[in-house]
Design a protein that fits this description.
This protein is α+β, with helices and mostly antiparallel strands. It contains 6 helices and 4 strands, in the order αββαβαβααα. Strand 3 (69-72), helix 3 (81-106) and strand 4 form a beta-alpha-beta unit.
């Protein structure tokens, strides 16, 4: 018998937006939300595009490689490169899972671009595994849930002001 190592945590959270995913017109969706656990914190803001829409309306030069993509557009002055390097593979695994989940609910193969435009961090609690993957999942949920989106927006405005981010970036990470 071979053990299957769990790479995705909290996948059950997507269940609450099943009907919204099924009814989605595949127009771009914007979301933002945090994930916080014991000694863990991550925040992601993103826009999710269906790949064909992205190719036709956002970036006509994009080489259509028929697979989902993470487009990290977070300013390096606002997010430590070290944290990006730690978490990018995890984010890609979660994005792939979310793409497959949406495809399964929709009954056809779909691919997406997860354009991440902001990522918030804590100077101590943003280094652990499954932090930004879970934050990605929460941000995607907020794309389909207005109240959850508004909570994420309020959180960003309160805890991720430019002054606060600059202070954190000056600290030794």
């Amino acid at each position: 018998m071979e053990t299957i190592r769990n790479q995705i945590y909290d996948s059950r959270r997507l269940f609450e937006i099943n009907s919204e995913i099924v009814d989605w017109d595949l127009e771009p969706r914007h979301g933002m939300q945090k994930w916080r656990g014991h000694d863990k914190y991550g925040f992601i803001e993103l826009t999710i595009y269906e790949l064909q829409y992205y190719k036709q309306h956002i970036n006509c030069e994009f080489s259509l490689n028929c697979t989902s993509n993470v487009d990290w557009k977070v300013d390096e002055d606002l997010f430590p490169k070290e944290l990006y390097n730690i978490h990018i593979e995890e984010i890609k695994i979660y994005a792939d899972f979310i793409s497959n989940y949406i495809s399964a609910l929709r009954g056809k193969s779909l691919d997406f671009v997860f354009e991440i435009t902001f990522a918030g961090f804590h100077i101590l609690d943003s280094y652990r595994k499954h932090t930004y993957g879970r934050a990605l999942m929460e941000a995607v949920i907020s794309c389909f849930h207005e109240n959850y989106y508004n909570l994420g927006k309020e959180h960003k405005e309160k805890y991720h002001t430019l002054e606060e981010i600059k202070y954190r970036m000056k600290r030794d990470l």
